[in-house]
Write a structure and sequence with these properties.
This protein is of the alpha+beta class. The chain has 2 domains: 135 residues, Haem-degrading domain (Beta-Lactamase); 95 residues, Sandwich (Jelly Rolls). It contains 6 helices and 17 strands. Strands 7, 8, 10, 15, 16 and 17 form a 6-stranded antiparallel sheet that branches. It has a 4-stranded antiparallel sheet with strand order 2-1-4-3. A hairpin with a 2-residue loop joins strand 12 and strand 13. The radius of gyration is 23 Å and the shape is globular.
Length: 289
């Protein structure tokens, strides 16, 4: 084979490979660890906001169930409804509240779609502008709270991925003031990664006693005030998630008044309880594992 013919074949091969690569895109996938992180964030939000119940379902981008957790006191039908919300959000790549509004505005024919749950409480999980799955919640105090729990869960992955830029030396995470304000308005995490978490926390009322066996909480108060009890013994404590304990209150312990500008460090394994709250209480929590 002459050199020019050999060169021509190589060139054609390279063009073919390049064309085939142009027709394939890199696809991100939701892992089981990611699904569990979504549920943990939603459960944490529910506990902090005294949600009376709820079922949290996480599906992949095809609507297939990956993980589900049912909080105590939630009605049994909530499981199927939450799965339906998550599946609808994933397949259509939109919050399910959008479809509820469309139907309310007169397009009732949409209810004829099969495998379709147009009820508020389904939120897509978006990483690097790709929908990798969705979370659905049913059985909280209201449809609005269903959606708030779902947003908190979705943000456990979304916030940590879409707000990160990488320099030559390190990964830098940046949140502009609008994102921070929106997070504090709902009291949701800003970022949750393996070795640390940053929560934009908001309390309107006292919460449950908590123990984080692996996380040290660094609390910085921005607005409001609260009475925080630390130490002592958790009353009626129950394990609500891996290495997480919740209870009705704390017996004994030390009581401190926290006001704007105060910082408190609560070591891992230490019971703590917001006994009284002057709402709204806004505070950063940096969780270090």
């Amino acid at each position: 084979m002459r050199y020019c013919e050999y060169f021509t074949m190589i060139l054609l091969l390279l063009v073919t490979v390049a064309a085939s690569q142009a027709q394939v895109m890199e696809k991100k996938s939701l892992t089981i660890e990611g699904a569990r992180m979504v549920i943990a964030a939603a459960v944490d939000f529910a506990k902090k906001n005294n949600a009376p119940g709820g079922v949290i379902a996480v599906v992949d981008d095809g609507g297939n169930l990956m993980a589900l957790e049912r909080l105590d006191g939630t009605f049994a039908a909530g499981a199927n409804i939450s799965i339906g919300k998550a599946r609808t959000s994933a397949i259509f790549k939109r919050p399910t509240s959008a479809f509820e509004d469309i139907i309310k505005n007169g397009r009732t024919a949409m209810v004829a779609l099969s495998d379709f749950t147009p009820l508020q409480g389904g939120i897509p999980i978006i990483v690097d502008e790709q929908v990798i799955g969705a979370v659905g919640v049913s059985g909280a105090a209201s449809a609005k709270q269903d959606e708030e729990l779902a947003i908190a869960g979705a943000n456990a992955l979304t916030s940590s991925s879409t707000s990160t830029t990488t320099s030559a030396n390190s990964a830098i995470t940046y949140f502009d003031k609008d994102k921070v304000a929106a997070a504090f308005a709902k009291g949701i995490p800003l970022i949750e990664v393996n070795n640390y978490k940053v929560h934009a926390s908001r309390r309107e009322a006292p919460g449950m006693a908590e123990v984080h066996n692996l996380d040290t909480d660094i609390i910085y108060v921005l607005e409001g005030s609260a009475t925080l009890v630390t130490g002592g013994t958790v009353v009626d404590g129950k394990t609500t998630a891996l290495n997480e304990i919740r209870g009705k209150e704390i017996s004994g312990g030390d009581t401190r008044k926290l006001i704007k500008g105060d910082v408190m460090i609560v070591p891992a394994g230490t019971p703590h309880w917001f006994k009284e709250v002057n709402a709204p209480l806004l505070y950063y929590v940096v969780k270090v594992s």
